[in-house]
Write a structure and sequence with these properties.
With about 120 residues, the protein is an alpha/beta fold. The protein is about 30% helix and about 25% strand.
């Protein structure tokens, strides 16, 4: 999710964190109060900063999670997902999207628009 939607969807982010803890993820970092913030990446020559929503480890492998919810700025969200997917491929991490009922169609359409059809959604 993009920065402007953080407050609007903070409850879902907390639900996602509880789900990941239940599934056995450790060393969880999240872009929310009460957790350590994941590493941010900034674009050179611009004020755009990309921070993954959740970063966690399981079985010695790092997983990057982003929340797939309806947004007022879909192009910015697409850019973020493409960047996080490329970053995870370069560093041999896993990139996954978490979504919920009412947002499946939006998230799937966004993924097909940027040719990430192979990503399986975590549905909470």
């Amino acid at each position: 999710m993009i920065y402007s939607d953080k407050e609007k969807y903070s409850d879902f982010l907390n639900d996602s964190l509880a789900y990941l803890k239940q599934k056995g993820y450790k060393n969880i970092k999240a872009d929310i109060e009460g957790y350590e913030t994941p590493k941010s990446y900034s674009k050179v020559g611009s004020d755009i900063v990309i921070t993954p929503d959740i970063v966690a480890e399981k079985e010695g492998r790092k997983h990057i999670f982003d929340i797939g919810l309806k947004s007022s700025k879909p192009n910015l969200l697409k850019s973020k997902w493409l960047f996080l997917n490329t970053l995870s491929n370069l560093k041999s991490h896993q990139f996954k999207l978490i979504t919920t009922r009412g947002h499946y169609k939006f998230t799937n359409e966004m993924l097909s628009n940027i040719n990430l059809n192979d990503k399986k959604l975590i549905k909470i």
